[in-house]
Every structure is written in C-alpha cells, then in structure tokens.
Design a protein that fits this description.
By secondary structure, the chain is of the alpha/beta class. It has a single domain, classed as Alpha/Beta hydrolase fold, catalytic domain (Rossmann fold). Helices cover about 35% and strands about 10% of the residues. The protein is built from four helices and three strands, in the order αβαβαβα. Helix 3 links the parallel strand 2 and strand 3. The longest helix is centred in the C-terminal third of the chain and has 21 residues.
Length: about 160
C-alpha cells in the first residue's frame, strides 16, 4: 500500500490492481483498537510496539506512506482486493480502509476468512490458503488481462494516448 501511495503522491505510474492481505492500514490507531476473539493472536500489542519502535521509529504515523488509510484521495487507488482474517487484530484497519476506498470511488473487493488469523495464506487450513491465493490470482489476472482493474498504469489525472 505504501508503494501505491508513493506512486500516486509522486505522479508516477501505478499498477492496474493491487492485492492486500492482512496488512496494517493505519499505524496511528491505538493498540486497544486492535482486538481479536483469540486469547493469543498472532499479531499482539507487543509486535505492534516493536514495529513502531524499530521500523517506524521517528516516523509520522499519520503520513499516508506509513498509514495508507490517511491518503487524502482513496478513490485514486487502483482496483483493490482486500483479504482479512476474522481472528486477525489488523482486520479492523483493513475493513475500514476497504470501506473508505470504496466510498471514495475505488473498485474494492473485500473478503474476510472467518476462522483465520494473520498470515492465513501461509498456515493451515489449506483450503483457506488455497482460496485466498486463487482469489489473488483471479483479481490480478482479470485486472491485467482486461485493463479493467481501475488503475491505469498512468500518472494520476492523465488521459490515455
């Protein structure tokens, strides 16, 4: 997501589509807003703290490059597939991100896997991982084959030749 924000901000070409799995869209949110039905979720407060204190030390957590949910023109995003796990503490971020982008005109497909936690494409059950990977492939194949992904691969605001 940060790469998309940078491309849009800098006026450089963007892809026609993006697939976002179990990401964090807003690092400015308090950890208390990230909850899970699991007693010990994969992404707990300690990991979020570690990310802020290492990768994001000194960063402005409201900068859209750090927190893409803060991007002021989410309708500019290309076609998005947003996949979340129903047990993932980051699902709230990504749900809100998907809803906001859709409300601003971006083409968004959101799917939540009810019994899945973070990194569900890499863990059992295999059926969840397989379904997610097939959804990613279908989304990207459709967008790139038809050019109908919503993103243009051109600079924002420019017309096709």
């Amino acid at each position: 997501m940060s790469v998309l924000v940078l491309a849009l901000r800098n006026g450089t070409p963007t892809p026609v589509a993006a697939s976002l799995e179990y990401g964090a869209a807003d690092f400015s949110l308090p950890d208390e807003s990230r909850t899970s039905p699991r007693k010990v979720p994969i992404i707990g407060p300690w990991l979020l703290r570690m990310i802020r204190e290492t990768y994001l030390v000194g960063a402005d957590l409201t900068d859209p490059v750090v927190s893409p949910a803060k991007y002021p023109a989410p309708g500019d995003f290309p076609s998005l597939l947003v996949l979340t796990g129903g047990l993932d503490t980051l699902r709230h971020d990504m749900r809100a991100f998907a809803e906001n982008a859709r409300a601003h005109g971006a083409r968004v497909t959101h799917h939540e896997f009810p019994g899945a936690d973070h990194a569900f494409t890499h863990y059992k059950p295999l059926a969840t991982a397989r379904t997610a990977i097939e959804m990613i492939a279908d989304h990207l194949r459709t967008a790139y084959d038809t050019g109908a992904g919503g993103g243009t691969g051109r600079e924002p605001g420019t017309e096709a030749p």
